[in-house]
Specification:
Blueprint: H1 10-35, H2 45-79, H3 83-112, H4 117-152, H5 155-167
Helix pairs in contact: 1-2, 1-4, 2-3, 3-4
Length: 168
């Protein structure tokens, strides 16, 4: 992903900013799990805080982001002839939600200090799968979705959608 990418529309820029913040968090999660023993060993407060933050990000922001795309953007893309891209991204949303369904209870238990060694193994596996899936998904959105939005959205629609998204 090109760090100097400039998008013309407010919606594209807002989604790109969220993507960048998510990539930063995903990198921290991946690095943290590379350092955590699979069984036994201590899990410091920094890791527990990171896991709690990761869980909140998945539960609130990813859901908000996906819902907005599915409700407001994918239908517009379909009308403009880019429905195949929307369908692919929707399939990925479903897979990511399924991984999140398994991962979120584990992040909650880790946050409260009640996750056993087997739970940490499952948390690590699910978290790393989520990192991989979200990175790939973000790359697709950055390289394909956001440029399409720049072409599909007119200035007025872009402004309305940007305001609506910021208000959610």
């Amino acid at each position: 992903m090109n760090a100097t990418t400039n998008f013309a529309r407010q919606v594209s820029r807002a989604l790109d900013e969220e993507h960048r913040a998510n990539l930063d968090l995903l990198g921290k999660v991946e690095l943290a799990f590379a350092r955590v023993p699979l069984a036994g060993g201590s899990r410091d407060a920094g890791l527990v805080t990171l896991i709690a933050s990761f869980g909140r990000q998945l539960e609130l922001e990813v859901a908000r982001h996906f819902d907005f795309e599915e409700r407001e953007l994918f239908p517009r893309m379909s009308e403009a002839g880019s429905g195949d891209l929307g369908a692919l991204l929707l399939e990925e949303h479903d897979v990511i939600r399924n991984v999140a369904h398994e991962l979120l209870p584990l992040t909650r238990l880790a946050s409260t200090g009640t996750l056993d060694d087997g739970g940490w193994v499952a948390l690590r596996r699910s978290a790393l799968e989520m990192v991989e899936r979200l990175r790939s998904h973000i790359d697709k959105e950055t390289m394909a979705l956001l440029p399409v939005l720049d072409e599909v959205l007119d200035e007025d629609t872009d402004r309305e959608l940007a305001f609506a998204y910021a208000s959610t």
